[in-house]
Amino acid sequence: MKTLSEESLLLPNPLREGLVEERIPEPAAMVIFGASGDLARRKLLPALYSLTRDRLLPARFAVLGFGRATLTDDAFREEMRRGCEEFARRRPVDPALWAAFARNVFYQQGAYDDPAAFLRLKVRLEEIEHTLGLPGNRVFYLSTPPSAFAPVIRSLGHANLAPKPAPGQPFSRVIIEKPFGIDLQTARALNTEVHDILAEQQIYRIDHYLGKETVQNLLVFRFANGIFEPLWNNHFVDHVQITGSETVGVEARGGYFEQAGSLRDMVQNHLLQVLSLAAMEPPVAFEADAVRDEKLKVLKALRFIPESDFEHQVVRAQYAAGSIGGQTVPGYRSEPDVSPRSTTETFVALKLFIDSWRWAGVPFYLRSGKRMPKRVTEIAIQFKEAPHLLFGKRGETIRPNVLSIRIQPDEGIALNFGSKLPGPAMEIAPVSMEFRYGSSFGVEPPEAYERLLLDCLLGDGTLFTRGDEVEASWSWVSRIHQRWAAEVAAGRTTLDSYPAGSWGPEAADRMLAADGRAWRLP
Ligand code: BG6
Question: Which of 85, 193, 243, 309 is the most exposed place for a label (fewest CB within 10 A)?
Answer without folding.
Answer: 309
